[in-house]
Specification:
Blueprint lengths: L1 H29 L3 H97 L2 H91 L9 H12 L3 H12 L10 H15 L4 H21 L12 H4 L14 H5 L8 H8 L9 H14 L7 H12 L4 H18 L1
């Protein structure tokens, strides 16, 4: 009897699936929020459009950069020709100067010959009286020699003058070439300027498109429920490492050095930072006015960041007393210790913000959020080639992240990179 009941129940289940199966699937499909699905499709279409635009801009950028390289090569060649022509003109000027000197010297020699001829001519009547025939022949012979030398000298002077005229003509031709080269060089430089402007414009457009793409990707992640929020530093490191390829141990090392792995994200208000920094800068003199200006600039960006995130205030790293550390300023934010101008750029929406958004799905990345902070750190380390735990890669990443080489910083990162599994166990 039990078997008959069981068989009957199984048949009933199969009939229900067979008869109502399509209805079941329909109900399941209808449980999807149509508004969310429509929003998702709209965002994906916008992403595709922006990707196409970004691809076109990138192609234009590549063409402009190639043309700029060609124009730079052409300009270098023209510059070399201009220098060669200028050098030839200099040599021709030196030749003209030497020829002028030779003409002047020969003129003096000719004047000397002429004086001798004059003196010889004046003395002939007297000589005819006091000398015999042999002496007279010698005198007239010398006179003929003087006349012959004079003729040769005149011819030499003419020859030098002709050479000078040829050199002057050559110099004039070279001067024309020089002007042509200079004109061509100016034209090529103007073309370079125009191409650079095109490149800057394309890069700005590309940056803006990438920013919009990151925002849309963030929106898409939020709509599809794929935005990520780590529960602790371990999850944040695993997530950031998976997204960027930076080894977990390297991230632990940097986080240890920067904030004790998120335990010390700042003890001071920005007012405290400003007070200590400015006092120290003034003590060291006016040469630190630029640093004071940077401090005020960073404070403004910091205020924009906390306002945008809805915070009333936030603690940042303190300024170390100048007596022990020399001129410096605090103000670094969160576990990754980013300065405000590095985090979001000049307007708070560029810098690392777009890249963080595209990875975490957070439309407004927060430097005090452990996920956003560690992802930002990983992105910056990756940009310095820190996707390896080799000593050379770590050294390069330390210099890039810290802004200078520090032996202690480097050794800390290396130690954690090699031993993080043991240290965390």
């Amino acid at each position: 009897m039990k078997r008959k009941i069981l068989s009957f129940l199984l048949i009933a289940v199969f009939l229900a699936v067979d008869v109502f199966g399509l209805g079941i699937f329909k109900v399941t499909a209808q449980t999807t929020d149509p508004a969310a699905e429509a929003k998702k499709d709209k965002i994906e279409n916008k992403i595709d459009d922006l990707k196409d635009k970004a691809e076109d801009v990138q192609k234009d950028l590549n063409v402009s950069q190639t043309l700029l390289t060609q124009k730079q090569i052409e300009a270098n060649k023209t510059q070399n020709l201009l220098q060669q022509t200028q050098g030839e003109i200099g040599r021709k000027e030196a030749e003209v100067e030497n020829l002028n000197k030779n003409i002047e010297l020969d003129r003096k020699i000719l004047e000397s010959y002429i004086r001798e001829l004059y003196m010889e001519d004046q003395s002939l009547p007297f000589l005819r009286v006091i000398v015999n025939d042999q002496d007279a022949r010698d005198i007239y012979g010398n006179f003929d020699n003087l006349l012959s030398s004079k003729q040769k000298l005149i011819e030499k002077i003419k020859e030098i003058k002709n050479s000078k005229e040829e050199v002057v003509k050559t110099k004039e031709v070279l001067a024309e070439k020089k002007d042509e080269h200079a004109e061509l060089l100016a034209k090529q430089k103007n073309q370079q300027v125009a191409l650079k402007e095109d490149i800057w414009e394309s890069m700005a457009t590309l940056e803006e498109l990438q920013k919009k793409l990151a925002e849309l990707q963030s929106d898409l992640l939020a709509v599809t429920g794929k935005s990520y929020n780590a529960k602790d530093i371990k999850e944040a490191v695993e997530f950031a490492s998976g997204k960027t390829g930076v080894p977990k141990g390297v991230l632990y090392g940097f986080l240890t050095q920067e904030s004790g792995r998120g335990k010390n994200v700042g003890q001071c208000s920005y007012a405290d930072v400003k007070k200590v920094s400015i006092a120290g800068y003034k003590k060291y003199g006016k040469r630190y006015q630029k640093s004071i200006d940077t401090l005020y600039y960073r404070e403004k960006l910091f205020n924009n960041i906390i306002d945008d995130l809805g915070y009333k205030s936030k603690k940042v790293s303190c300024t170390i007393p100048f007596s022990s550390a020399g001129p410096n300023q605090g103000g670094a934010m969160g576990a990754a210790q980013f300065m405000s101008d590095t985090w979001g750029g000049s307007d708070g929406r560029h810098g690392y913000v777009p890249q963080i958004s595209s990875m975490t799905g957070h439309s407004k990345p927060d430097p005090w959020d452990i996920t956003d902070a560690v992802v930002a750190m990983a992105i910056k380390i990756r940009s310095a080639g820190g996707t390896s735990d080799s000593n050379s890669a770590i050294k390069k990443a330390v210099i890039n992240y810290y802004g200078a080489y520090s032996e202690n910083y480097y050794k800390t990162v290396v130690y954690w990179a090699k031993n993080y599994k043991t240290l965390l166990s």
